[in-house]
Design brief:
- Helix content is 39%, strand content 28%.
- It starts with a strand and ends with a helix.
- It contains 8 helices and 14 strands.
- The chain is flat, with a radius of gyration of 21 Å.
- By secondary structure, it is of the alpha+beta class.
- It folds into 3 domains: 83 residues, Jelly Rolls (Sandwich); 100 residues; 94 residues, Jelly Rolls (Sandwich), CATH 2.60.120.
- Strands 1, 2, 3, 4, 5 and 6 form a 6-stranded antiparallel β-sheet that branches. The chain has a 4-stranded antiparallel β-sheet with strand order 7-14-9-12.
């Protein structure tokens, strides 16, 4: 099987929720709708509209999981289909596609983060008062999250990082990264900075803080070896959302520069694939957390 261009008519299912996927797609012309459904067509909930340039189906390739949603042509659609075993060839043909696919996943993570924060805030309001359930201004938000949970409840599964962490740990030095050691309390990068680097945390622990060393300081996350950190800031060229601070005296990292991604792919393509797999994992992890919040919203709202 090789990379091919395909045409789809209005209403035609391009990928179906629950199917195992061995390829992913990029829209060349036209648009498509992304749907989740719980029991059948009448239960469909529209999740997104995909326009030319958009990728879909890549998570099934990167993580070997069943399709999490259905994608249906809206009007006539032309798309290229990329088999999973042709991913390297796809990138070799045009290395800019590495950045394109990374940006696609990073944008998905940022959008899902917004949805998750909204769900957490709504959940907090519902927990505080029974009267919140009667608040008309909140009803549309509540219904949206209930519908989202009902349509996706069968897709919730705990992501496992063991195999991914082992693969990252097994990466060999390709000669393009630089290595640095940090003592406890040293800062890898600061909140608000524009970063052109990401890091492989080889050893130690890194805490993520907002308002670091200020009165409003808050720890918002923690990374332990072996994993990637700082990849979203590197990919999107947006300000860092938190400061990364070493929390042990034996923290060691490999620094990856955005400008080296193509060169790294030429010498060690598995490193690029692992970054993509990690982005996919992060998106799926966020989606699970979001659905978990939607589940609790549903349970609180339906409680008599």
């Amino acid at each position: 099987m090789s990379i091919v261009e395909k045409s789809f008519k209005n209403g035609e299912v391009i990928v179906k929720e629950g199917d195992s996927g061995n390829s992913f797609f990029q829209i060349i012309d036209g648009s498509a709708l992304v749907y989740a459904e719980s029991t059948g067509k009448d239960d469909q909930i529209k999740l997104a509209t995909l326009e030319p340039g958009a990728f879909f189906g890549e998570m099934a390739i990167l993580e070997a999981y069943p399709r999490s949603a259905s994608v249906i042509a809206k009007g006539n659609v032309t798309a290229i289909e990329i088999p999973g075993d042709e991913l390297n060839s796809f990138f070799e043909e045009d290395p800019n596609r590495i950045n394109d696919l990374m940006m696609h996943l990073a944008n998905g993570i940022e959008a899902m983060t917004v949805d998750y924060e909204e769900a957490k805030n709504l959940l907090s309001e519902l927990r505080k008062s029974e009267d919140a359930k009667k608040n008309k201004s909140l009803f549309a938000k509540i219904k949206k999250h209930i519908d989202m949970y009902q349509s996706n409840k069968n897709t919730i599964s705990e992501p496992d990082t063991k195999e991914l962490s082992a693969a990252i740990a097994a990466l060999k030095d390709d000669g393009y990264g630089s290595f640095k050691a940090y003592r406890k309390g040293m800062i890898l990068f600061k909140e608000g900075e524009i970063g052109d680097t990401m890091y492989i945390l080889k050893n130690g622990t890194v805490g993520m803080y907002t308002n670091y060393r200020k009165r409003e300081e808050e720890k918002v996350g923690e990374a332990q070896a072996v994993t990637f950190i700082g990849e979203i800031g590197m990919i999107t060229d947006k300000p860092r959302k938190a400061s990364a601070v070493s929390e042990s005296d034996d923290t060691n990292v490999e620094i990856i520069y955005k400008s080296d991604l193509e060169t790294i792919f030429r010498s060690q393509p598995e490193k690029i694939i692992l970054i993509l797999r990690y982005l996919s994992y992060r998106l799926r992890r966020l989606n699970n957390d979001f659905l978990g919040a939607c589940k609790e919203i549903t349970e609180i709202y339906n409680k008599k």
